[in-house]
Amino acid sequence: MSAGRRTLWLQRHAPVVAEPGLCYGATDLRAHAHATLAAAQRIAPLLPVGVVLRSSPLRRCAELADAIVALRPDLSVQHDARLAEMNFGAWEGRPWSAIAREEIDAWTANFADAPAGVHGESVRGFMQRVAAAHDEWRAGECSALWVTHAGVLRAVTLLQRGVRCAETAADWPAGELAFGGWLTFEHPPGN
């Protein structure tokens, strides 16, 4: 990290204890303990002294944040609901393959504003809550690690590009984000 710059580290939780292909945004699943420890061991030695550690309150993230603190007792964790994964409403806990194509098409037809899974969260609402945390970090002076979810990582990627809401499904960042992996973004102070 350059002198005078601050870094935002975004680490995704380890793989969850669930069948592959499950929709589990707001569902509070545990992650595999051995993978959680391995993810903590990879990132803990890289973090600078004084980094602010925030975590989604969902267990798969909170347990990883706790494992990091166990390795780095100079850190403490703050749970932040703004860093939780998107709520997929009635789709939560169902295999993606069991969700009717028509339901997904109806959501993506009005991607920014339709609630996912009929009564879940809209992309606009999700992006607004993630943006509130991101704006707070940008206005501050400390580097931070957020232990969070793939959706939050993708939302911050858009925010870093100046995009406040993905208006269409095609605007949403694609690509695989490794479990336990992380992204970093740097900003000079006051920027």
Write the layout of secondary structure elements.
Elements: E1 6-12, H1 33-43, E2 52-55, H2 59-71, E3 77-79, H3 101-109, H4 123-139, E4 144-148, H5 150-160, E5 182-187
Helix pairs in contact: 1-2, 4-5
User: What structural class do helix, strand and pairing data support?
Assistant: alpha/beta
Order of strands, widest sheet: 3-2-4-1-5
> How widely separated are the two ends?
16 Å
The Cα radius of gyration reads: 17 Å
Helix content: 25-40%
Q: Assess the beta-strand content as a share of residues.
A: 5-15%
* Count of strand segments: 5
| H and E string | EHEHEHHEHE
Which sheet architecture does the biggest sheet show?
5 strands, mixed
Can you count the helices?
Answer: 5
| Average pLDDT taken over every residue | 94
Unreliable segments (pLDDT under 50, ≥5 consecutive)? none
Shape: globular
Q: How does this model look, in words?
A:
With 191 residues, the protein is an alpha/beta fold. Helix content is 32%, strand content 13%. It has helices at residues 33-43, 59-71, 101-109, 123-139, 150-160, and strands at residues 6-12, 52-55, 77-79, 144-148, 182-187. The chain is globular. The mean pLDDT is 94.
In short:
The protein is built from five helices and five strands, in the order βαβαβααβαβ. It has 191 residues and is of the alpha/beta class. It is globular and about 50 Å long.
Identify the notable features of this structure and list them briefly.
13% strand; single chain; 191 residues; alpha/beta
